[in-house]
Amino acid sequence: MNWHSTLAPRAVARLFVKPLERFLRVEAAGGVLLLLAAATALLLANSPWASWYDALWSTPLTLRVGSLVSTEPVRFWINDGLMTFFFLVVGLEVKREMHDGALADRRAAVLPVAAALGGVLVPAAFYLLLNSAAELRQGWAIPTATDIAFAVGVLSLLGSRVPSALRALLLTLAVVDDLVAVMVIAGFYAADIAPIGLLIAAAGVLVALALRRLTCRNALVYVVPGAMIWIGLKYAGIHPTVAGVILGLLTPSVICSGADHAPRNRPARTRRELPAIGSTQQRSQRAARALTAHLRRAHLAQRDALSPAARIEAVLHPWVAYGLMPLFALANAGVALPGAGLRAIYAPTLAAGILLALALGKPLGILLTTWLCTRARLTTLPAGIDWRHMLVLGCLGGIGFTMSIFIGNLAFTAPSLLATAKLSVLIGSALSASAGLLLGWSLLRAGARGRTAPP
């Protein structure tokens, strides 16, 4: 038996795993952890340990870097600090979609972009119709975002009823949705702009662009410009987590050039290492050291086959999905139900606006804009997708957990309004997830491909 002939195809396949499939698997599993963290936060906030739960996230934490000292509550470092990595992954997702995903093809990009915009404008209109008062109007963006992890997690429960094209469409729509949410955060929830902060952020952007010109393969070098952008935006009065998206969009998405690192040479370089691995395997233990060296070179060939953006996303995404997002949910989803009110809600119109916008406005906006674009022949539904699939997709778009709570923290400072907004987001997201799951089980057939003709 030729050991190399059986190993090589499998090894090469492992070296070039499709990033979309890996991304969806991580998001689905992360959605489960996110749900558990949110449930834990709710239980703790309504238990005898509620005071301990609140005190934990309000504990002052000091960060010292040289002569710079900053003391803020733990919740601040999570929401304004660690969440920057969440937004960095969002920026990298957008970059990937624009480089080699659905957004790379102008005609194919019309569908997810239009659906995402409809999923922002219609829910915002629903909310504003019920909340015209000045203190409530600033929460209009809360029901406009889609939580990728929860949505993909619910979609995965439908199993073979869901064609791969629908998963890809949901991912692209949610990525565009998050990008719009980031622009809303930067444009509508910024304080008085301080010019010196903008200059610091601009300097960070210039450093990142210079590193791109130098084709640096080490992703760690982007930490310095990222920190400059974060500090600059914070001093400027713009939410500093936007720095993550800016840095993600600036990270190179093409493979660095070089004689042995050129894209056309990488498959040959990998194949060059694999026969050496196979031949060395058949030798005695004296060749173990040589085998280790061959494996190291094969690993470097795999690493160099990915762009800096792809490498950073592959490293950060599991940490964000399995650690950061559940931590954010644990710190922010705890709502004391007797205080927020099921019977004593401070602002009933606020709750109604968020609930209706998520459960009805989201699917209506996604379906309406998609239908208008297909009628105008600007785009078509992907192969294997019909309007039943789009209805399920629209319902799942109403799951707005992470980004909606994040925007709620920016929109409201009054504890009663913020608690009402959080509770409404939780209920609205649960209703949307339940509707998407029930419609998926009743309308979609296992293993069946949908028709592409509209009803």
Write structural notes for this entry.
The chain is mainly α and 455 residues long. The chain contains 19 helices and 2 strands. It has helices at residues 3-15, 19-45, 50-58, 74-100, 106-130, 134-137, 148-156, 164-188, 195-213, 223-236, 242-250, 266-281, 288-304, 308-332, 337-340, 348-375, 387-396, 401-411, 415-443, and strands at residues 60-65, 68-73. A two-stranded antiparallel sheet has the order 1-2. A hairpin with a 2-residue loop joins strand 1 and strand 2 (68-73). The chain is globular, with a radius of gyration of 24 Å. 43% of the residues are buried. The model is unreliable at 1-17, 258-266 and 448-455 (pLDDT under 50).
Give a quick precis of the structure.
With 455 residues, the chain is mainly alpha-helical. It is built from 19 helices and two strands. It starts with a helix and ends in a 12-residue tail after the last helix.
Low-confidence stretches: 1-17, 258-266, 448-455
Mean pLDDT: 79
Structural class: mainly alpha
- The oligomeric state of the chains shown is single chain
Helix coverage percent of residues? over 70%
Number of helices: 19
Strands in their spatial order, largest beta sheet: 1-2
What percent strand?
under 5%
Shape descriptor = globular
Q: Tally the beta strands.
A: 2
